[in-house]
C-alpha cells in the first residue's frame, strides 16, 4: 500500500456537475487544483435534463454555445400543464429569449455535457482529477485543510475501500465540498441539512426513441414538454436532450417504487405515448425520492459546500443543477480574490447568505409546484382543476419563468436592479460584434452611459477596482464615441427606463449597484465593494 502526500491550492471533493465546474473555473484561473471522486468512471446516465438561460450564459463563458451544440437543444413550444382530461391548467413560457440574450429553457444530455466539461479540464495541466478515490478524513486550521483518501472498489452501486489499495493525503488552502446529498465534507464540519419534510417517490425513465415523438406525428404529445396532473398517475413528459426523451411517473401511495421501476411496468406506463419496446430503447428506469432540504450556513472556515451538498429540491422546476452552477459561479470570483490575497473573508460569508436565500427560493418554488402536481385525491384534484382552469381562462397567456434571486450580500440592497441578473445585448467593441460577454469580456464591469462618462470613481476606488480585475467601459449609440457600441439600443433603453447612468456588474453577471451621478456612483461603490478588496 502506498501513501502519497500532495499539495494544491484547492481540493474539490466530488466531480458531479458542481465539482467539475469548480475544477474548470479554478483551473482556468491558473490555480493548482485536485478533484477527487469516489466513482472510478463518470456517471453514465443523466439526472438533470434541462437548464435555464443563466446556465447558458455560464456555459458560453466556457466556449459552449447552447444555441448550437450537439449535446443541447431547445424547443419553440409552450410548457403545458393539463388535467386528466387534457384541459390546460397553466402555460409556462419556456420558448422565449431572456433579457440576457439566452433562451429561457434548454434540454441537454448530461453525460455528453459533462464529458465536454471534463475535456476542458483535461486540457488544463494544473488540474488533477482522480476518480475511484474517496475522502475519508478532513481537518482544517488557520493555514489550510488536510484530507485523507483511499482507493475504492465498486460492487454494483456500493463502493467500499479497496483492500491494499492506494491511500493518500491532500493539503490545500481551501476545500470545496461538491460531494452531493450525503456530503462527507458537510458532515465533517458538523453541519446538517434542514429537512423541509417534502417526500414523494417518482420513477424517472430515460429513453432513446427510434423516431422522436412530437405533437406533429403523435396527438398524445400536447407539446414538446408537458405535465399531466392526473390524480390517477401524475406524469411528466419532457425532452431529454438531443435524441432522448424523459418520463417521470409518480409512485402512488401504497405502491412499491422498485416494482413500478421494473421495465415491463415502465413500458406499460409509456404505451399511451406510443413508446414501443420493439422499436424504442429504454436507457434506464429508476426510483427516486424527491425531497426538499437546505443548509443554513454554506461555509465553515476554509470549507465551502456547493450543489446538492447544500440544497436538495424536487426536480419539478428543473433547477437543482442550475442552482449548483450558480453556487459555483458565484463562489469562484470570491475565492479568486481570497487566493490572490486581495479579498476579505466576508466575501465568503456573503456568498453563503446570497446563495442560501437564492436556493431556498427555488426549493420553495419547486415544492410549491410539487404540491400542485402530486395530488392523488380525486376531489382535491377536481377543486385544483376548477380554480386553475378559471384562472387560465381569465388570462390565457404563458406565465413568465422566474429569475433566480439572491439573498443579501455583495450588492446594494435597496437598489431596484441590484441583486438581479444583468441584461445582455448586441454590441460592437474593438473591431468585434456580438453579445456583450464574448465581445467586451467578463469580470467586474462598470458600464457608464457615454453622456455620464465624466462622472467617475475616485482614484483610490479605481485602484481597488483594478485589484479585483474590474474594468470601466462607456457605452452608447452609434457616433457617440463610447468604447462599446450599443448596436440595438438595449443598454440605452435599460438604463433610460431605470433612470440610471452607471451599472456595476459582477463577474457572475449579477448587478451589484447602479447610480446616476458621480456622488451616487462613489457612494454605491463604497457600500458594495468598500473594504472587501484590500
Ligand atoms: C430525477 C432527477 C431529475 C433532475 N433533473 C434536473 C434538471 O432537469 N435540471 C436541473 O438543473 N437539475 C435537475 N436535477 C438535480 C441535479 O441532478 C442535481 O442537483 C445535481 O446533479 C447536483 O450536482 P452535484 O455536483 O452537486 O452533486 P452530484 O451530482 O451528486 O455529485 C456529487 C459527487 O460527489 C462524489 N462523492 C460523494 N462523496 C464523496 C467522497 N467522500 N469522496 C469522493 N467523492 C465523493 C459522488 O461520487 C458524486 O459523483 C435532477 C435530479 C433528479 C434526481
What's the helix and strand layout?
Blueprint: E1 3-13, H1 17-28, E2 33-37, E3 50-52, H2 53-60, E4 72-73, E5 79-83, E6 88-92, E7 105-108, H3 110-122, E8 127-131, E9 133-140, E10 145-155, E11 158-161, E12 167-177, H4 184-188, E13 194-208, E14 225-229, E15 235-239, E16 245-250, H5 257-260, H6 263-270, E17 281-294, E18 299-300, E19 303-305, E20 311-312, H7 320-339, H8 346-373, H9 378-394, E21 426-429, E22 432-435, H10 436-439, E23 445-449, H11 459-467, E24 471-476, E25 484-486, H12 490-497, E26 502-505, E27 511-515, H13 518-528
Parallel strand pairs: 1-2, 1-12, 2-8, 5-14, 12-19, 23-24, 24-25
Antiparallel strand pairs: 3-7, 4-7, 5-6, 9-10, 10-11, 10-12, 13-16, 13-17, 14-15, 15-16, 17-20, 18-19, 21-22, 21-25, 23-26, 26-27
Helix pairs in contact: 1-3, 1-7, 7-8
Features:
29% strand, nine-stranded mixed β-sheet, eight-stranded mixed β-sheet, Glutaredoxin, FAD/NAD(P)-binding domain, 534 residues, binds flavin-adenine dinucleotide, alpha+beta
Plain-language structure description:
With 534 residues, the chain is of the alpha+beta class. Helix 1 (17-28) runs parallel beside helix 3 (110-122), helix 1 (17-28) packs parallel to helix 7 (320-339) and helix 7 (320-339) runs antiparallel to helix 8 (346-373). Among the domains are: 3-63 and 108-193 and 292-369, FAD/NAD(P)-binding domain; 426-532, Glutaredoxin (3-Layer(aba) Sandwich), CATH 3.40.30. The chain is built from 13 helices and 27 strands. It is globular, with a radius of gyration of 24 Å. Flavin-adenine dinucleotide is lined by residues 13-19, 36-39, 47-51, 134-135, 178-180, 184, 204, 288, 307-308, 315, 318-322, 324.
